[in-house]
């Protein structure tokens, strides 16, 4: 079955520390991969996406993610976390081509300590 | 630059009442969908549409109806609200992949409480 796993429900880091949020997927073929961020009481904002090509993708707000086909992973990273990064982060996959059926992970809530 | 617009943002319903969550997009996207978000469960697809006049069920369709009479609008109807439908609802739209490459755009969400 197709699925997305975010193994960390909560993560706490200190401001200025580095961050890595994990995402693993189970899919028949290499899907399109996404990371979204949701601030409290807000909708979802796209951070970055991978369709093909360079496996290291850059996104907004200083985030990047690396696609590793052998590990079926798409981990999100940031070298230095800011207090404003506290939010919930969702990994999602979608089949290649035009699509409406995204599969989301259950999310990782990030807390940033001052 | 409206994008995806959902109304209302907050709603309290009594069990058994019906209501419609409105969703409109101005990006001429073919695909529209409704998700619900519950703690610890991520977003789950309720219904989706691949174009005007075409709708289909997602993962959790029971208790909800949709229609797509125009490209722009995709309302979600709760027929007889139940406490289990207390959730945050997100409308989303995306293209067929030939232009913006599958990015899905979300509305800001509708917080629904059924008492």
How would you characterize the overall build of this protein?
The complex is a heterodimer of chains A (114) and B (115). In chain A, 0% of the residues lie in helices and 51% in strands. With 114 residues, chain A is mostly beta strands. By secondary structure, chain B is mostly beta strands. The model of chain B has no long low-confidence stretch (mean pLDDT 91). The chains are: A mainly beta (114), B mainly beta (115). At the A-B interface, strand 5, strand 6 and strand 10 of A face strand 4, strand 5, strand 9 and strand 10 of B.
Please supply descriptive tags for the structure shown above:
heterodimer, A: 114 residues, mainly beta, six-stranded mixed β-sheet, four-stranded antiparallel β-sheet, 0% helix, B: 115 residues, seven-stranded mixed β-sheet
SSE topology:
The complex is a heterodimer of chains A (114) and B (115).
Chain A: E1 3-5, E2 10-14, E3 19-21, E4 24-26, E5 32-38, E6 44-50, E7 56-58, E8 64-68, E9 73-78, E10 87-94, E11 103-104, E12 108-113
Parallel strand pairs in A: 2-12
Antiparallel strand pairs in A: 1-4, 3-9, 5-6, 5-10, 7-8, 8-9, 10-11, 10-12
Chain B: E1 4-7, E2 10-13, E3 19-25, E4 31-38, E5 42-51, E6 54-57, E7 64-66, E8 76-78, E9 87-94, E10 105-106, E11 110-114
Parallel strand pairs in B: 2-11
Antiparallel strand pairs in B: 1-3, 3-8, 4-5, 4-9, 5-6, 7-8, 9-10, 9-11
């Amino acid at each position: 079955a197709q699925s997305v796993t975010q193994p960390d429900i909560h993560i706490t880091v200190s401001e200025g520390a580095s961050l890595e949020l994990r995402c693993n997927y189970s899919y028949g073929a290499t899907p399109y991969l996404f990371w979204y961020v949701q601030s409290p009481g807000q909708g979802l904002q796209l951070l970055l996406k991978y369709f093909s090509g360079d496996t290291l993708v850059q996104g907004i707000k200083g985030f990047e993610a690396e696609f590793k086909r052998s590990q079926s992973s798409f981990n999100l990273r940031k070298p230095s976390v800011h207090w404003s990064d506290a939010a919930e982060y969702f990994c999602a996959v979608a089949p290649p081509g035009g699509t409406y059926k995204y599969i989301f992970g259950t999310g990782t809530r990030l807390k940033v300590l001052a | 630059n409206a994008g995806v617009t959902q109304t209302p943002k907050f709603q309290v319903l009594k069990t058994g009442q019906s209501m419609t969550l409105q969703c409109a997009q101005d990006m001429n996207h073919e695909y529209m969908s409704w998700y619900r978000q519950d703690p610890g469960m991520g977003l789950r697809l309720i219904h989706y549409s691949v174009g005007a006049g075409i709708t289909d069920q997602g993962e959790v369709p029971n208790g909800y109806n949709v229609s797509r009479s125009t490209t722009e609008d995709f309302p979600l109807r709760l027929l007889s609200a139940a406490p289990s439908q207390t959730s945050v609802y997100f409308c989303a739209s995306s293209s067929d992949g030939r232009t913006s490459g599958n990015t899905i755009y979300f509305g800001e969400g509708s917080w629904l409480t059924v008492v």
